[in-house]
Amino acid sequence: MTELTHFYQKFQPTHYDLYIDIDRGTKVITGKTTITGDAKVKDISIHQKDLTIKSVQADGKDVSFTTENQNDALNVALTKTGEVTLTIEYSAPLTDSMMGIYPSYYEVDGVKKQIIGTQFETNFARQAFPCVDEPEAKAKFDIALKFDEQDGETVLSNMPEVKTENGVHYFDTTVRMSTYLIAFAFGDLQSKITTTKSGVKVGVFATKAHKANELDFALDIAKRAIEFYEDFYQTPYPLPHSWQLALPDFSAGAMENWGLVTYREAYLTLDPDNTSLDTKQLVATVITHELAHQWFGDLVTMKWWDDLWLNESFANMMEYVSVDAIEPDWHIWEMFQTSDVPAALQRDATDGVQSVHVDVEDPAEIDALFDSAIVYAKGARMLVMMRALVGDDALRKGLKNYFAAHQYNNAKGADLWNAIGEAAGMDVAKIMNTWLEQPGYPVVKASIIDGELTLSQEQFFIGDGVGKERQWQIPLNSNYDAAPKIMADKTIVIGTYDKLRKENDKPFRVNVGNNSHFIVKYDDELLKDILDNIDSLDSISQLQILQDLRLLAEGNQISYSEIVPLLPKFAGSHSNVVIATLYRVANDLKKFVTPNSNEAKSLEKLFDKLSSDQVKRLGWQPKSGESNDDQLTRPYVLNASLYAKNPISIESAHAIYVDNEQQDLSAISADIRLFILRNEVKNYGTEEVFDNLLDEYRKSSDASYKEDICAALTATPDPKLIKKLVGFFEDADTIKPQDLRAWYRGLLANDAGQEAAWDWIRNDWQWLDDTVGGDMEFTTYITVTAMIFHTPERLAEFKAFFEPKLNTPGMTREISMDIKIVETRVKLIEAEKDAVNEAVSGLVD
Ligand code: BES
Ligand code: ZN
Questions:
Q1: Where would I find the Peptidase M1 membrane alanine aminopeptidase domain in this sequence (predicted)?
Q2: Among 197, 593, 668, 692, whose Cα sits 20 to 30 Å from the Cα of 546?
Q3: Which of 143, 190, 185 is nearest to 168 (CA)?
């Protein structure tokens, strides 16, 4: 007999009655859960975590039970199999862990308040009520909530409230759904509500610490996104309402609970009068991501967590598809190209990385699957590649069939490929599984060999890689018709180069549009041809050329010093994506210089050379009516100019600070505010400036302003202020645990603050583990550290600290990859620094 690893195989619930009583005063939850279901065996198990079980009855009679903490089980001995109704009475603590049922803290007019909310993905529903807490165990839920209620408080859940009786709020029965999507919340909330064309009520809810108009942007996007998805999926939104709720304490970014989506405040509320375009775009994509899940994930759910990509990769693609449809002027796919694509290409090149589809059983490992660069970014790119291959008509037809076949049920990856493959008349699974199941991606080498244009593929690595001879089915998207649509072999010959070049009358290229997940290494002749014609290329192609060269340099296949002379060619571009990529490369050069050295001075000069004309062209203040490109470009060039210590820029930024100091620093245009504040702290930073900003941080409920202050304060060069800053890291009244990583990372990236930040995390690791451990964000403290370290000394310290933690469940992969990442960087710097610095000084001296 095979082992029954999933509780669902033993007991299949069909209906839950949840009665939950939450006392905020005593921080105790008491509950009674009634589960009706089908027992396949007599000894069944139900999930619970940290619950004190008072009694268990089966069909009204007490039965014996045991709890087992190691696998979160409540084991119940039944006397027969078949349909049974279990009644379980329990209590549980209400803790500040941001998992299960938990309080969020905030202040309005100096009065401390809290709202209660929930976070059940991946497996925290079991901390709120006993249940078979597996995505496949779908059932219907009747929820009843009681709490120490005060006048005027709002209560929300997946479904509308149907009645209140004796202080108990009863909600309508849900549709058939997974436990991880159950949600409820209550507190003193404000809201804005509208209705879609099809009659779905859409609402945005937030605390009263926000101005009412901060809810407007989200409401508009949410409404139009639902209308878009109903059309695109050809499947109606299945619930009566779609609530969006901002919670002041939130571990992830946002969570797609069915009908009650929860968000970090930063990703829902915004000041419509002073928020930068890129922040608006980000918020819009977060909302559209979660709303994409209402179908993909909620209506049809992965059978098990190994197919998490069905949820996350898909939602990550759809967030762009939908924003592109509702805000076409934003050209939102450009954001995909400057954020997701480089993240995926960088991380996926490290040996040991996970594949998009990963087998998994241990709950601690399930959370570790949410690797944003892989399951999100690479997974989305894989689907973008598929979409380009089959076209939107086949995609939509396939999706419609997929929803019809699996709604209120579960699916596996193969079900999606089959549905789309059938609609497209193509073996989609065969092509896509090479991307889904294998880690890494190929570099396609394009060369002229004996006069023949030849392509070959091999896995691309940054750092050492164990060549498993992996091969991919690569959608080539060449601009020469003679190239095949799919490259399946290791090597292919396209034809005689001279003849092809004449016929096509343009430089040879592959991966036009940059939608396939691979990079290209052109030989010298082909690359020269492209670079000689660079001005005729569109901005995505220019980005791609720079990006691929950058990766090849990271992977030691070319030298960074070969890229340096190309940078000035792109510096005058009016395209924000070209500028973004240019500065990505330029910022990469910083690791090759020692602070305050002559090399550092030369690099500063290079930054000045790259940015000065653009700073003049764009000016410090955003202008009304300027293009999106200009708005998005300005931050990059101002940042570069300040890095270059350009005296006019430093003075201009200071003048803007002084102008606003007496009234309201938050009123400085959000497009430039970060640079103004940081410049002030760095170059004019008295303790008074520091204290004032920290005070602003504590008081403000504008998340983007708070982020700017965080970035400014962590850049302080003053040892005394650095010490003071670290002193606030564990003070939740100043820095919420959900925001701490940004402070840690900011200080670690500051040469003057690195030691203090690094000492803090090493000394207080246990505190961090107690505070945010068990949470999906926890391991990212290691990730961000590894992104910054680049000296042999730090590498040794990093290893000494993290190697002993290698066997911690859920951390193994991250630690071993991060050691490798820092090792590779240290080696690269050693090998390249002289050539790079020479190339830089060659341009400026
Ligand atoms: N389902 C996730 C949230 C989540 C992630 C819960 C990991 C539990 C564990 C949600 O849909 C999501 O992907 N959120 C993102 C933001 C999103 C817009 C990319 C997140 O939280 O980072
Ligand atoms: Zn998601």
A1: 217-435
A2: 593
A3: 143
